[in-house]
Amino acid sequence: MNKKTILVTGANGQLGSEMRVVSQSHTAYDFLFVTKEEFNIEDAEIVKQYFQLHSIDYCVNCAAYTAVDKAESDVETAMRINATAVGNLAAICKEQNARFIHISTDYVFDGTATVPYKEDDPVSPVNMYGASKLKGEVLAVENNPEAIIIRTSWVYSAFGNNFVKTMLRLMKDRESLNVVSDQQGCPTYAADLASAIMKIIIQLEHPSKGLIDTLSASTIFNYSNCGVITWYQFADAIRELSQSNCKVNPIPAAQYPTPAKRPQYSVMDTTKIQQAFDLKIPEWKTSLEECIRLLVKN
Fold this sequence. Notes:
Rossmann fold
């Protein structure tokens, strides 16, 4: 029996790196990992040729422009990578009969809600990064109605650059840190999301009736770890778990201005993805402990 092939773009990013780790325990599949240097998702011709050369069954698009503040001035690049390229990739997947799984963001919402966002709540990004990711979602679904879009938030990992690693570094060098305490959200451990993506692919291979109904109704899912915290609480948990003596002080976002506006409330309801794919999502602190354990060990 031929193994199914999974293509992972953005292979050196946080999620791409975690997909590489997870792939080691999924030997029933062949994996192709491509970095932006090897595989320019912006070049539709290169993408098409690559798909024709390799028989690809699933494409997990982890490639993205993620510099939120820089996107405010570099709109064209953000739109090219997060929107146009995504639309092209989705279209080529449809043409080549590959299932397209695309990673999006909580930043498609404006952050004015007071209860967790559901997948079909109105979208209204407050910054250019969010706008570029939303345009990518729209183009993906337009060009490939069977595309699966997973919105995630506050991603961190033992790989790449992220809030957890920045905090650990600063806590070594400083006696105190000021961290925003009036923005709420849910951290996402990229290792958990990578495992969830593999579980989704396995479910797509052997779909249950309920799953088929869910997928025909909508293609967008929310995924983050369980629980609701502020950036300050996140930082304080990092301090506690790493046994740092650095003092973490809560400050309002107004005291920490950034080029791009951030949503005040980024909490997403993950009920749909849990029910559709029979996923059990870990609690945020359990996953943070695991990540810090790996970072300290290395």
